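hiii so um. not sure if this is the right channel but i have a protein structure encoded as tokens and i wanna go backwards to a sequence. like what aa goes where. can anyone help
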């Protein structure tokens, strides 16, 4: 099972750990998301086009309808969220929800897959309500657990969006706290889950937060712009995993390992 950790093999064994060796988003070297780290992504959703996207069904559709009815989002924000939810569903089916073996070798399996991870959603003072809902919907699509920290200066509309999302998806709203209080909590490890914490920031983060965790590389502050692209946003709510295994023993095929590989790819 698996190989040495010195050096990535593109597609065959993308490498990157989950502990202190993982800094930031932690996309694996040699994997499908690595190059996405070397730039920034901006929203290109056209509102006129988004308005023609049908409303999603189920819990997400109910959340968006409630948000519009209670004026937590505008008509244009509602249209944008519909398009974002559709993009999430497509990206999940095409990329994040399906384990892949790009090499297709008979003698070994090299499986790349995504697993949901716990995230701290930090809602800043300048966070837009539709951006808050968008990130929570992405986390729901990924099946990721989340806690929400809300800046004391966040607008009433943004707070309304947070409450709707928390009620709909059962997300924990940890507390209302200033940037200084949030920074201190991160530095003290109050938000740690396992090794460190992953923070998805909606709105801006002040220097005090960055300075507080400068000595903690295991705390990832992800303040990329919120976009309507599921291929971009869902990365924040999952961890990547590579599983490599030999399917033979001295040249003799191993039915047991083949069955295990098939199970992991299912």
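sure thing!! here u go:
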């Amino acid at each position: 099972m698996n190989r040495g950790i010195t050096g990535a093999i593109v597609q065959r064994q993308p490498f990157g750990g989950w502990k202190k060796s993982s800094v930031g988003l932690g996309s694996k070297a040699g994997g499908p998301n690595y190059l996405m780290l070397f730039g920034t992504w901006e929203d290109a959703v056209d509102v006129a086009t988004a308005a023609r996207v049908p409303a999603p069904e189920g819990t997400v559709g109910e959340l968006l309808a409630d948000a519009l009815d209670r004026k937590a989002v505008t008509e244009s924000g509602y249209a944008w969220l519909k398009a974002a939810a559709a993009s999430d569903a497509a990206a999940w089916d095409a990329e994040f929800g399906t384990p892949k073996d790009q090499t297709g070798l008979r003698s070994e399996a090299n499986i790349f897959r995504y697993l949901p991870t716990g995230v701290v959603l930090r809602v800043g003072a300048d966070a837009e309500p539709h951006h808050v809902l968008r990130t929570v919907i992405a986390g729901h699509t990924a099946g990721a657990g989340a806690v929400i920290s809300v800046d004391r200066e966040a607008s009433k509309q943004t707070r309304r969006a947070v409450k709707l999302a928390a009620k709909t998806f059962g997300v924990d709203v940890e507390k209302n706290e200033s940037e200084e209080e949030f920074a201190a909590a991160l530095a003290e490890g109050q938000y740690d889950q396992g090794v460190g914490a992953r923070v998805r920031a909606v709105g801006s983060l002040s220097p005090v937060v960055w300075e507080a965790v400068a000595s903690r590389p295991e705390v990832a502050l992800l303040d990329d712009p919120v976009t309507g692209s599921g291929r971009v946003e869902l990365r924040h709510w999952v961890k990547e995993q590579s599983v490599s295994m030999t399917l033979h023993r001295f040249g003799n095929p191993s039915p047991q390992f083949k069955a295990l590989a098939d199970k992991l790819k299912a």
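oh and The mean pLDDT is 90.
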